[in-house]
Amino acid sequence: MLLRPIGTSGATVAKQQRGAGRVRAARAPYPEPYPTGHVGPSVDTQKLRHNVELLYAEALGRGTPEVLPSICHPSVCYCDAHGDGGHDCFGLRGLAAALERCTSAHPLLRVVLDSVAFDPSGATATVEWHATAAHLLPGSAGVPPSGLVSISYGIDQLTFQPGSGLITSILSIRDRFAAEAAEAAASGAASGDG
C-alpha cells in the first residue's frame, strides 16, 4: 500500500518514488534565437516596404494617386503634426486630393526615403525622408512659379492593417517648405496687425 499526501493521486506518488534515486537531465533551452517581443505569425516586411516605397516614390514623388487603392485602406487617415489641421485628410479621396495639392504646388518635387524601420510585429513603420521642392515651373493648379528651391525633412509613422498590409494611418512630422514657411509668416504677421 502506498502512502500519499492528501490531494495527490496514487500514480503521481508512484512516479515520484520510481525516479527518487535518478538524476534527470535538464530540459533543452529554446532553440536560437530565443523568442522575444511579439511572438506571432511572421510578417512579410518586403510587402510593407514595397507599399511604403510606392506611397512616397509614386503617389507623392510622381503625383500618381492611382496607386493609392492598392497600398492604402479605403478609410486611411493622414494627419500633419503641424497642428493647424489644414493638411489633415481622411479616406482615399482625401489623401489623393492632399497629394494633388502638394504636387501641383511643387511640380518638380523629388522625394527620397532615407530609412524605413518596422516594429517587430509589422504593425507600424517609421519612415525618414527628405524632399526637394523646386518651384520653377507653373503648377497644374495655375500657381505661378516662385523660383524657390527648398528641402524639407520629415519623419512619418505609418500604421498597417494586420493581414493585408494596407496603410491605415499616416502621422507626418516634417519641416515646412520655404513657400509654406513664408506663407505662415505672412499670415502670422497679418493676424498680429489686426
TrEMBL record:
Residues 1-22 are annotated as: Disordered. It comes from the Eukaryota. InterPro entries: NTF2-like_dom_sf. SUPFAM superfamilies: NTF2-like (SSF54427). This is SnoaL-like domain-containing protein. It comes from Raphidocelis subcapitata. The lineage of its organism: Eukaryota, Viridiplantae, Chlorophyta, core chlorophytes, Chlorophyceae.
